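Worked Example 4.2. Read the sequence first, then its structure tokens.
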Amino acid sequence: MKRWLLVGVGLCLSAALLWGAACGGGASGSGGDPSAQIAWGPTVGDLTGTSVRLAWYTNTPDLGEVEIGGQTVAGDGPVQAHQVQLQSLQPGRTYRYRLHATTPTATFTGPWHEFTTPAAGLTDFDFCAYGDTRSDAAAHRQVVEALVKCRPRLVLHTGDLVDNGADLAGWKLFFPVIAHFSGSVPFYPCVGNHEDDAELYDQLLPLPAGQGLRGHQWYSAVFGSCQIISLDSDADQAAQGEWLRQLLAQPRPAGVAWRLAMFHAPPYTSGPHEPDAGALQYWCPLLENGGVDLVFNGHNHYCERSLHGGLNYLTVGGGGAPLYEASLPNPFQQSFHSVLSFARVRVSAQSLQVTALDTQLRTLDTVTVTHPPAATP
């Protein structure tokens, strides 16, 4: 029989025992419509060949469980913001799962979802990147509905997920929109200025372990042949620069052909937010010295590609927030479109084929990134 390793289960067991005692032995029956208790989720994150992190939120504190692989795995609780990390998965397998939420009076069971772990040696897949979704759920939904048609294996978000990271109401708008993909496709965000170091950001999102405040402000994660490097434009950029220097000095992880960086505030931009001075000083010299292959930014609400030091910087800020027009000269600009938009990247062993798309899937810009001969793994 398959044995699942659940990170943190020891802490959850004591909570479950206390909850059972308070409830007189647990739930008394089915709760019917799961949306009456499960407010949103699950959201898949930090997906590797052998592990996954799941997050979801419930309307009242409850005990959370994940049913997967013919077993029901105890999660955490009683809480509202649930997170579970499952390990001992197998690479290249599709797992079907669903959530159970147990209150003092009933158990609510969510619908089935599935995710597929990356196979060993995975080199060919698509992913999407977008950002600056903030408070216009209708506009955000247009972008997501177009994005899912590209069938991405993972989705990056370049920050400003919501208008105010400390306001739960904004997250209540955000998560139902990304539910179009988030139950099966791993989601990797970086911190924007509107998240404002709010604790809800860490509590609600299944983030990879990293550095900085609460261990999630900046991080590195691997999916298939891509290493994702996420930085925080509003944290200590000098400290992150030193972390980045050490990370890039190491050999690429096994199987990694491409390094991708993302951070909210762009160093090369047409405004109205000015080029980020900290990124220019501490990060770009490292990124452009053969450190990474592609950079994603947000903060300015449009689609723009800049080229500097042989490195393409994509501002993918057309995710739903009010659009901006260009207001500053950008001598490094290669394309500019002030429309709702996102980027699709087609990954292969030989190249990254990058295409900027609008919500009608019309091509706005395209560029192909290849390794120079000296940098080929």
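Now turn to a second chain, presented in exactly the same format:
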Amino acid sequence: MATSNAHLAARLGALLAERGLTQAELARRTGIGSANINKFVHAKRRPNAWEIGALAYVLEVELLDLLGVADEVADGVAEEVARLTDELARQLDEAARAADRHARELAAANQARSALRDELTTLESQLRVADRARASADAQAKRLRTELEAAKERIAKLESVDKGYARYQPTVMPQWNQSWLVSEEAQEFELARAKAKLIGQIAGTGVELFALLYASSRR
């Protein structure tokens, strides 16, 4: 950093006064001629790098302090610190906004996940209900098939009895006129009544089974 001769001369004079030194004493200690020391103090000549180093050593000050740039450096550092502080504050503000945005997104994701979990629970419950209903329907269908097979067997037995009655015609055995030998019309009536009774017993198994049994009885 450039420093004017007047500023250096003022600083050098102030240091001589603080240390209680004369220009001659300073010249003796530094090895710099008295004439040059006088020129430095009166801003008539600027010391070179070696002379500045010798003056700073004898006066026991830092080079920057002797040159009078310590304040300038401090001001520059303060400006840099202020700039970095503003930049850090800006970055912190951006980070805070990003964290707030991420928090809202996370809350929304958690809410959506909770809703999906509730929906999954509902679907699982509905699936269990459907499984129970299907198991019940399968059991009922199995029971209806069993009852249908039993009904078919009973109808087949009744039809075989009907065929057995048909063999006993009055024309074949006119001499059998006992009371236990009923007429053909009575036999058909008894058979029809037995079939109707059987159909009535199994009617509670459902409309579909009743239709099947009725169709079987009409064959």
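Notes for the reader: The mean pLDDT is 77. The CA atoms of residues 113 and 119 lie 10 Å apart.
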